[in-house]
Amino acid sequence: MALARRKPTRAVRVGTAQIGGGAPIAVQSMAATKTQDIPATTRQVQLIHAAGADVIRIACDSKKDVEALGEIRARLKDSIAPNLSVDLQENYRLSEIVAPHVDKIRYNPGHLWHHEREKSIRDKVAYIAEIASKHDIALRVGVNCGSVDPEKTAKFGDDDVGAMVESALEHAQILDDLGFTRFVVSLKDSDWRKVVEGNRRFSAQRPDVPLHLGVTEAGMPPDGIIKTRIAFEQLISEGIGDTIRVSLTLPFEDKGQEVTVGRELIADIEAGRFRSVPANFGEGLNIISCPSCSRVENEAFIELAQDMKEMTKYAQAYQVTIAIMGCRVNGPGETDDADIGLWCGPLGVNLKHGEEIVGHFPYDRVLDEARVLLDRVIEERGLATARS
């Protein structure tokens, strides 16, 4: 199968890397350790860099995180010079103090909508763009289906991909109008089908804008790799995509695997090595889990995700979605759409049935409670419970 020629997107420089403009597809990953744990995060960046990442992202949710990031950058200065991106999440005003330490800032339009509601979206974007220009850094407009602003969600109803695409188009136009063109856009979801559709629709209208591809909360290997591969095979083979991230739930020491897998996927696609997908792939039990990142509030989340995968094997045939989220930023919203949600906090786990909170349980008890809830969900749908 011949690959389509890459879309002729504009070139966006991120430190020493180039995204778009005909450059090779850049591979990214994200530090999993808590940013304020300076030794651990420094080591994490070194591991990911050694795996071959072109850009490494770190989350900053507070001034203390920014101070830690500054120290991490200083420690890395004499050994390696990684291209660092920062994920601001809700506090866009941190951009002013974080910009001197990074090569790119990622902001989420949905989170930006909620913060300082008395100000217009354009004014908030202008603030970020001005700081990016001043410090000679790039931006990523990172749109997630699960956190699109309420106005667009209401406008598009069940077409959540449409809401995501309109949000991305709106912010791309705002940045263009401000004269800031050094930006990349991402449109992500845990459903690879929505990732493919969203990126196709955006690319058709804005073929000039470089796209960052990824299936967010893809889950654990091998399922998370398979979901990501399907999306990447379809998009990259059509010439869509300038940088990628494979988001996997992994132990902290193994985060470099995201980069290794990403490079393997690109190499396979470019060589025409496409994998066949079983007709029933995606049917039955679907476990969504976020990539282990620095916002994870308890490392027990990773082991819990692995234990859930093992415990639920008896229910593989049932069309049930389970979401396991490791932080308060994505936990509440991302679990609302699942049949069963586990939103993990520092000391315990919020177990949910859709939007309903079933209870808050210690990590060593929640697995049993989740099994009871899973059996209940199966029975509610008129299916026999297949206990092992």
Comma- or semicolon-separated keywords:
Sulfite Reductase Hemoprotein, domain 1, alpha/beta, 8-stranded parallel beta barrel, 388 residues, globular, TIM Barrel, 2 domains, 5-stranded mixed β-sheet, single chain
Total number of β-strand segments?
15
Q: What is the CATH class name of the largest domain?
A: Alpha Beta
Strand percent estimate? 15-25%
Judged by helices, strands and strand pairing, the structural class is alpha/beta
Through-space gap between termini = 44 Å
Order of helices and strands: EEEHEHEHEHHEHHEHEHEHEHEHEEEH
Shape: globular
What is the makeup of the main sheet?
Answer: 8 strands, parallel, barrel
The neighbouring-strand order within the major sheet is 3-4-5-6-7-8-9-10
When the domains are counted, the total is: 2
Low-confidence stretches: none
- Output the CATH topology of the largest domain: TIM Barrel
Task: Specify the helix fraction band.
Answer: 25-40%
